[in-house]
Amino acid sequence: MIRTIRALFLGCQLREKLLVVVFLGIAVLLWLSGFSKRASAFWREQHRTTLDLADQAQWIANSGGIEAAAQKAASRLDAARTLDGVRLLEAMQKLAADAGLRPNIGQPSNPPGNGQFAIHTLEFTANLRDPDPAKNWEALTKFYRALQQRSPYIGIEQFTLRPDAANRAQIALQLRVSSVEITKSR
Amino acid sequence: MKLLDTLRAGPPPPKIALLPDALFFTRALPVAAGATPAEATAQVELALEAISPFPLAQLYYGWFWTPGADRAFVFASYRRRFTSEQTAAWRGAEVVLPAFAAVMGAKVEPATTILLASPEGLTAVHWDEGPVPAKVLCHPLTPEATDEDRIRARDELIRAVGGSRIVRDLPTPLTADPALNDREIVIRSGDLVSRLPAATAAALDVRDKDDLHALRRAHRRDVILWRVVVGCAAAVALLGVLEIARLGGLEWQRVRLAKLKAQTPRVEMIQASNALAIRIDDLATKRLLPMEMLTTIMGVNSEILPPGMIFTRVLASTAGGLYTLNIEGQTNNAGQISLYQSALEKLPACEKVDLQPTGTRADLTTFRLTVTFKPDAVKPVSATST
Fold first, then answer.
1. Do B121 and B179 form a contact (C-beta atoms < 8 A)?
2. Are B273 and A67 in contact (CB under 8 A)?
3. How far is CA B121 from CA A140, B27, B99, B101, in A?
């Protein structure tokens, strides 16, 4: 059949042969161009999926180790002394009151846990406005020591201390604290 | 349908123009032993020029020679014996040659004579030995010639060539086989097969040699164009296969994406567990000690902090580094900044001190101080006090 088509082609006029070559060449170039775009998009997508699947496979393979690590970390804590959001709020209010502070405390965040543990975080702000800077400092130190004694059940994540610009004796304390709640022990 | 029928019919035979034998004078000419095709061509043309009453430019001529043969068989005709209508009919022909030349590629026994019959007469092609014929004789016949006349002419021809042990009469007119390749042309009559290799067919072609050269050049160009077409067709086929493969790949990718999506909630749960584990571990084992760090760089009774220097903001966070304290401050004595930096660098608990002035307003110079402590160099107040 090829020989027949060849004979037909060779029997054509030169301009007909050139037209066939040009049209066929353009068609091939257009298809090639479109195909290369589609192929490269497919290649990128499959490569990304391969990486994502490999990443997922690694996480799944390590899930046992991760759970064991979480258990090990939690085993350092006494489940009865861990605090949920409400107890964290109450504890912070009590610590502040004991130190003579009148704080503003935000609502504890309620993050999703893994069914066994949950971490609760809240924002704490206190303005120490006694005219005597020594008293302010003493109250701050008392509160801080009491807070640190609750470690590791209450941990400081962020600590900001800012003297008032107009009155250096007055101090603003901003804290972000968190607590671990062990909801179910194995 | 017509195209399909054409394709089914297979390749057409090459177009061959067979010329009347009687218009050509013929001669066997010696060729030097071991001559190359180019040397044989030169010898043949030189000899033909010597024996012909006309210059070569006024002749239509060709020859038959096979490599190793000690002679060539040449045939030529005065160009004016052909009308312009006759020569116009040659256009598009693969090869133009007298009818007797078409059988010269046949494999024959020594002392064989082949007789070709045509309306114009009878032609005898005689081989004595070797592949190149020794004689070609024509006996013209009128259209009114009877069968007896033809038998008589045949006998005369056989007698004239002499020494024939085998005489073969061609049963049917010469026809070319379909062109299965470019290497040879096959001409057949009954069981007689004449194979003419491309080079031999080119030498047999009687057309003007310059025209033949141009025709061959055009043919080579057309073959190149054909190869481009074949290349494009192959590329189209390859692209088709690749497109099919890509579609298969898309299906495979769809399955993988479904798997990825199905696994995502489980993996997110594991990642959350991991983040929780890290945070629980950090809470249990690592403590941010901002006041202890502040006391270290100020002194218990602010003895390290230069007089007139005050801190306007103190920041420590687990995200910024468990052992890093960021301070913004101001002083009314810019010279104190470098002195304070030197004092901090001398502290054994400090690993790195970065103190940069950030601006000056009136007599106040503001600065930013970042102190990084050595791990475990700062102890909790309760620990140091006990």
1. no
2. yes
3. 135, 19, 12, 16
For chain B, what is the largest distance between any 2 Cα atoms, rounded to a whole number of angstroms? 150
Tell me A111's DSSP state. Answer: -
* Chain A hits for B309, Cβ within 8 Å: none
Sequence-ordered list of residues with C-beta below 8 angstroms from that of B199, at least 6 positions apart, any chain: B37
Tokens of B69: 């043969």
What is chain A's length? 186
Please state, for a pLDDT cut of 90, what percent of chain B lies above it. Answer: 52
Q: Which two tokens stand for residue B128?
A: 């004595």
Confidence check: pLDDT of B199 > 50: yes
Measured distance CA(B252)–CA(A50) in Å, rounded: 12
Question: Does ipTM come in above 0.85?
Answer: no
> For the ranges A32-41, B37-46, B267-276, which has the lowest average pLDDT?
B267-276
By Cβ distance, the residue of B226, B236, B294 closest to A6 is: B226
Give the 3-state secondary structure of residue A113: coil
How far apart CA A51 and CA B142 sit, in angstroms, is 92
B residues 316..335 contacting A (CB < 8 A):
316-319
Residues 6+ apart with CB under 8 A from B266: A60
The per-residue pLDDT for range B204-242, each reduced to its tens digit, is 999 998 888 898 899 899 999 999 999 999 999 999 999
Asked if A4's CB is within 8 angstroms of B11's CB, the reply is yes
> How many C-alpha atoms does B116 have within 13 Å on its Cβ side?
27
Q: What tokens were used for B242?
A: 């690749």
Distance CA B283, CA A153 (A): 7
Asked if residue A152 has a cis previous peptide bond (ω within 30° of 0), the answer is yes
